[in-house]
Design brief:
By secondary structure, the chain is mainly α. It has helices at 29-33, 51-58, 65-75, 84-102; strands at 20-21, 24-25, 43-44, 47-48. The chain has one domain (8-102). The protein contains 4 helices and 4 strands; from the N terminus they run ββαββααα.
Length: 103
């Protein structure tokens, strides 16, 4: 896998050679039209969100389940530590930046 831990959460999902199914990069205009474009939008607490939660948040229809299953399978192959950067450093930096504006 060519994606580093710091890059994974911000990686584009679609047309990305790191996320392939049957040898081709994933491509889904329906999800793009619902503004689902980065891994960070579908992962929380180091896990991909359940399909029903993604459907609810993004107004996806039930026909999106196959794409979800492919994506979940691909994302699950990355070490969970790859998501630690996002959930620790990113939020800590955001918190520090917020404090600057509050001061």
């Amino acid at each position: 896998m060519d994606i580093t831990s710091s890059a994974l959460p911000f990686s584009p999902i679609w047309y990305n050679n790191a996320f392939k199914a049957a040898g081709s990069p994933l491509a889904n205009m329906v999800w793009c039209n619902h503004n689902i474009t980065e891994i960070s939008q579908i992962v929380e607490n180091r896990e991909i969100l359940p399909f029903e939660e993604l459907r609810r948040r993004n107004n996806l229809n039930v026909n999106s389940f196959l794409q979800y299953s492919q994506l979940k399978s691909i994302v699950s192959k990355f070490p969970k530590e790859y998501f630690d950067y996002y959930y620790s450093d990113f939020y800590n930096q955001t918190e520090e930046q917020s404090q600057i504006y509050i001061s």
